Amino acid sequence: MKIKMILPALTEALSPHCRPIKYSLFPPLGLATIASFFSPDDEIDLQDEHVETLNLDDRPDLVVIQVYITSAYRAYELADHYRQKGAYIVLGGLHVTALPEEAQQYADTLFLGPGEDTWPRFLADFRAGYPQKRYISQERDLLSAPPIRRDLIKRQLYLVPNSIVVSRGCPHHCDFCYKDAFFQGGKSFYTQSVDQALAEIERLPGRYLFFLDDHLFGNGQFARELFTGMLGMNRIWQAAGTIQAILQPNLLELAVESGLRSLFIGFETLNANNLRQQHKYHNLNRDYTAAIRRLQDLGVMINGSFVFGMDEDDESVFETTVEWAISQGIETATFHILTPYPGTALYERMVQEGRILTQNWDLYDTRHVVFQPAKMSAETLERGYWQAYKDFYRWSAIWQGAATKTTLNHRLRHLVYAGSWKKFEPFWDWVIRTHQLAKMMPLLESVLQGFISSPLKPLSLRPQGSNRRNIALRAR
């Protein structure tokens, strides 16, 4: 059987404001995971439109398309194209799960929610000639999932081909997050076994890797066993976590000793009322500054996430947030306009209040205003969002942030990391056009590791080689 798997380009990746490096970071692990359920005899072509031109002249038997909200129209276009060729069309992903009636018009079969339990059933039905119209995930378990088909990933096209996911979902329930809609009807947070995760890490070449989990620290016991198992692997890695997890005693230290060098953190807002309204309770009454100092003392860089447009935000929120982030020495920041995704509690509330301005999914990219803000105009919100990026990444702000660091090594690392991420667009464009992206990995590793001087004392457990898994098991 010939299978075509496609990750369509997000609309923002095709816009004049596109930063090509942003869309060349990570390979499509979701599709590579699904591919692992097919037979070794099946012929699979996996294409990511962000990094390559799609081959639309082929004639596959089965077409699998992963759909995000701002790739929905492109996904439907591709589905129609292959349907006219007689292919069987399967759609899945966040947008399909949120709006199945819309997606059903373009597909023969829909997958709602994660697919570890539903793909084996579909393939058996499909080969027998009786596939269902919809497969809805309910049994959530990664313990029997086969390894990702990394042989299908074109590593040379990505800056971070060593990306990895060892869990699904998140234990928290924020109103603006898609998670509850996607994982409806079953567990919304679950992990691999520690042994599975360590085996997957060992498959990845080189030193560097990036955990794409929504919340790697979400299960404290799993995280501790994983980090213990990674001791002695000589890895350096990045991930996402929460303020709550950072402030847990000893967990962060173990993560750093196992190789953590940079952490994505959802600060989202400095306003406690905003946190309450969005049900982001795990950030309430947490000392942001203490968490930041804890990370910086351990040599961990920070990518802070901030959302503008919550109901307590007025025109002052942009300057206040940017100045705070700079004064805290945060290396990189990601700003977003609050976006009510279909299927979320935020979207339902906005619909009930009559505040949704458009349902053009191309605009739901966190860079356009699609709802009526409470304390400012839509134009002010959008203008302030763009100004926040300009203000945070101006050279004087980068120097000011670097000056907050207490060692020369960390100041240099701040300058190099923040500056190279935002100030050298022509360089990154040239690297991508000339297919040199994979060669940048040593540079990234040296920035993450080369300027660091870890203050940690050695832990009592220093496993080497095969002893790692035994120690991880004993830690349970």
From TrEMBL:
Gene3D superfamilies in alphabetical order: Cobalamin-binding domain, tm_1862 like domain
Keyword S-adenosyl-L-methionine attached: yes
Pfam assignment, any one: B12-binding
Keyword Methyltransferase attributed: yes
InterPro entries in the record: BchE-like, Cobalamin-bd, DUF4070, Elp3/MiaA/NifB-like_rSAM, Methyltransferase_Class_B, rSAM, rSAM_horseshoe, rSAM_sf
Protein name as catalogued: Radical SAM protein
Keywords: Iron, Iron-sulfur, Metal-binding, Methyltransferase, S-adenosyl-L-methionine, Transferase
Cofactor(s), names only, from the UniProt record: [4Fe-4S] cluster
Residue span(s) of domain B12-binding: 48-133
Sequence ranges assigned to domain Radical SAM core in this UniProt record: 156-374
